[in-house]
Amino acid sequence: MTDSHSLFSSYEELVQNHARQFDPQIAQLQQLVTTRMQELRAAEQTLVDAQAIELQNIFNALATDARCLLPTPEFRTFVQELKQTQSHNWYTRKSEFSIAEDPTTWLLATLELPIGLSNYQIHEDLDGYDDERNYIGYSYTLSLRFGSVEHLIEILYKRIYNVNDCTETSIKEQIDYYIWGEVEDLLTNMPYPKEQQQQLAQEISVLVGYSSKVFAFKPRTAIFEYSSTTQEQ
């Protein structure tokens, strides 16, 4: 019978040879990657900071007068796509958006009062309940200022019931179900004819809905992932 020493000796010698040959190289490679990533992050930070400054400039512009978005190509595209979007939820309005595809021609663009949007925040509700089930809810709030009147709007955009059951509302549904009514209420006491109030409610609601996409912008950072190689036992 082969003794245990001779049975394992060849294997152990191979393991030791492997460790001597590859462990130092792997450790050196890991150090090189770590050092290089630190160099890249340091070089990247200047550009990330510049992005953050530009985003803050955009947010400041929205707080001053969000109508600065009206002539942008991105907003015009958003409006065009929104007008073509159909919603199948029972709670959405049956009427389609009657706003013009060119936002620069909107009634909103002719007003003297500024439309300020600010204080965008994301919220998590761990105790949500919809009369049937508990859920984790995600919403965002932002402040809408129309002239001297300011109003906080809250929009629920995601519900998680369990791992395999999650519902999200589209931008159109957010506008239709959450934003539009709030804006209509805000305009009730404004000195505009009823027809103009309805038109302004549509236009402002679309502007608020689009702004949520802008407020969600974050500075872009480079991503690199690798698995640290460890010795298998």
TrEMBL record:
<protein>
    <submittedName>
        <fullName>Uncharacterized protein</fullName>
    </submittedName>
</protein>
